[in-house]
Predict the structure.
Amino acid sequence: MRATHAWPGNSLRRLAALVLACACCGAWAASDAGPAGALLGDYTRLSPALTNNAFGQPMVLQSAEGATGLSGDIFAVVPYPFAAVKTEMKSADHWCDVMILHINTKYCHAVAGPQGTRLLVNIGKKTPQAMADASRLVFRYNETRTFKNYFAITLSAKEGPLGTSNYRIRLEVVELPDQQSFVHLTYAYSVGFAGRLAMQTYLATVGAGKVGFSRLAGGADGETDYVSGVRGVVERNTMRYYLAIDSFLASRREAPAAQLEHRLQSWFNAVERYPRQLHDVDRSDYLAMKRTEVLRQQTLY
């Protein structure tokens, strides 16, 4: 079952104007019809939730749990021109700059070869950890579609830790008026029997009490409550990756020497806006760990 996080909040009048602009600009929306048109259709369909939600920004989060896997999706309007987003996110090296911001990423390195570009990514704990103790995922980098006003990038890994597999991180972006872009991020993976056992152990111990962002009606006290369990897990990680992309794009406006520190601070500030879901460590611990991991990422190949 899929749930959508979109609760009452402050109206974003500027975004509403953009929706009207899209509806009135049929020739622009029809260009590169197909994947671009489909994503613009999502933008129109989700416009009420984008303009009125609890995130404090134009964003919708969805999640789904199936018989064999989990997925999370974020749709959002970002204040960056399409050309800039395309230039920055079509670089495999920049994807490593994004991935390392996630609290569980210990290492990322892009490697080009005859079979294409791969991202070597180590995933581990939320605390400092030796490379040898972190799980290695090998993501295939695939630029799936590129048009004048649309592009999509997919990272896919066949195998993951603890009985997980078929990882997919997909970003698609379409141009909006007024120097903005509409993005759709998907984070998904399959979970086998061993993975479900490991997840049950996690949820019964260190993951106990953790929740996601979607709200469900019908709690024991008659009040709404947050989704929990494995859907809570996938929602939290989808949000962490989205905030990493946003923090990276924001940092590109800074001088090169200041970009790393800007995106580290930006990512931590962003996750702390949702403390119940995403608070894991103190700022000083996160910054010290990530500065060490970035240095290791730059020197260890």
User: Anything to note?
Assistant: The first helix runs from residue 13 to 24. Confidence is low (pLDDT under 50) at residues 1-32.
